[in-house]
Amino acid sequence: MSGSAxxxxxxxxxLATAVGLRRIGWEVTVLERAPVLADVGGGISLHANGIRALxxxxxxxxxxxxxxxxxxxxxxxxxxxxxxxxxxAALERALGAPVVGIRWAALHRLLREALPxxxxxxxxxxxxxxxxxxxxxxxxxxxxALEADLVVVADGVHSRLxxxxxxxxxxxxxxxxxxxxxxxxxxxxxxxxxxLTWGKGAEFGHITFADGRAEWHAVIKAPPGIRHAxxxxxxxxxxxxxxxxxxxxxxxxxPDAVLHHDIHELATPLPAFTAGRVVLLGDAAHAMTPNLGxxxxxxxxxxVTLAAALATEPTxxxxxxxxxxxxxxxxxSVARAARxxxxxxxxxxxxxxxxxxxxxxxxxxxxxxxxAVLRFADWTPPSxx
Length: 385
Hints:
24% strand, 18 strands, 13 helices, single chain, seven-stranded mixed sheet, FAD/NAD(P)-binding domain, six-stranded mixed sheet
């Protein structure tokens, strides 16, 4: 089956969907509201499921080249003692790929390069859809409109179109934590590739990139909307006394390179990922907290699953029904697990609860961490035909 599609949203999930649909012979137009595609953003951890999805889309080799495997590290306390150790080599043996770190901008760029330039239209806001034409969806764009056999809604956690498709759904809610991210200006000598440090109501972590630089993030339990006049100074005040290399990561970051976003999620699962010939994907469908590092990988899974369904099913309707049946249970399960991981990890504040958690994590057998990752990362993509 071939056809035409409009993808609303030019992020990782939207571009990956466009790549997948073109691979199965569809005509695709991606509409992105941002007027400029700036290569900004932080870093992404991709587990084996994300890498496998990129391979199915034909960009796996490029992604591996741009990424850096994360073989060493683990979880620590603010004083530096280890709670768990990362064994990236064991993950690679089990899954065929380790966790990798890649800059958001690098992944976005390689997905863009897999598409003809005319596929992506920037500076275009989509506020409504018209499904009144049988078998078609009309997308109003300024004074004109596009018509397609399918519309993919990939416009993020605060999707306007999701609210129109599911007006009774409460929409995204504040997760209880805010995240600050920074990219070091230059390479920083690091003893490990990927670390998380759990303190009282806070997590500080880093991932390393192929160029030797690193991204750090700080997840903090806090009311929404809090901002700082000097964000980097606030990070030094909060985390500067934590173990090395945290102070060095902060010192290697320029003040204007720090991003700050409150974390919102779809705590109430959507009743469906489809509505007629409209399908939701990525954060628009299942926005989750970052505690498992699965957000991008789940969006990539969505893209491959949708393309495979459209390639093999006889009708758009049957393809979307298959997509919903395959993706909704899995992605919503991952979202629930991510929420629970946050509650048991960086969001804990009671000293006794933190001590019990730390003891339980330390005493857990080494294979428990591997099994926890395998639960979500061991995913085999469907064939695109």
